[in-house]
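Worked example

This section walks through a single chain of length 310. The input is the sequence exactly as stored; nothing has been trimmed or padded.
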Amino acid sequence: MPTAALQPHAKRSRAVRQDQARRAAKPKVAKRAASRRAVERVLVIDIGGHQVKFLATGETEPRSFRSGPRLGPREMVARIERLAADWTYDVVSIGYPGPVLRDRPAAEPHNLGRGWVGFDFARAFGRPVKIMNDAAMQALGSYRGGKMLFLGLGTGLGSAMIIEGIVEPMELAHLPYKKGTYEDYVGRGGLERDGKKKWRRHVGDIVECLIAALQPDDTVIGGGNVSKLKELPLHSRPGENVNAFRGGFLMWATADTTASDLASTAPATRERPQKQQQVRQADLRSSGRRPRISKSLIQRGRRRSRPRLA
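Given that input, the structure is written out below as tokens.
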């Protein structure tokens, strides 16, 4: 049979295959669009060593209960389901106080009970679950762009960095400092042991060290104890705990999510007055004075700069 006689048939076959491929693709696109529309309501859980706070899309007031060294994951899920029984949500975001790997806790928390590693949160809630380090979740909700360092003053010391939109949780709390670790001096235990005056000095010293070492464009000091600071360390701004919920909503954001969509899901931010901090920093900028560097930081720099003797 001549080749020319096969050409019209080949063209028709190719056209049929392309049409079939287009028809097969349409349901998938529609299914993806439907799934995006269905995932609208998020339950955000912020787990802390002192209390567990949670908020769902469309709600205005977070709910909470005390945590502590005996709280395990099964009890936490049961209490949240009981207290949020009148809320509707499709998916869950969890801010976990420890390292997280592939949406699962990678280590047991320091200030809670045991059993978190290996626990199946998706099965317990009966819904899809995403898990992120708690400091990283609050950092995500505080992010404005560039290279940002987040430090959370709470039961311990939470830390995270975001560089050009990439979230990197950090475990700076357990680095050595004086006779213990950073967390020993600026966590809740250090505040109760040393009192506010010494605790504030330690916070200022540690923040200065970390800013000098990491060179962020923006530094956010958050956590429940930020309100106990008389003045913020230089080149930093206060974070709001409500940003943890905003970060939890962002964990489920898609490319189609708009700013108005996010605003409708996130609770309103209540800005705390920080007049003393703002005035002090403005005065320093206008006067041209250099920021104060602590003596301990200078001494550490001198020790490092000394040449080694053979």
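What to look for: The first helix runs from residue 3 to 38.
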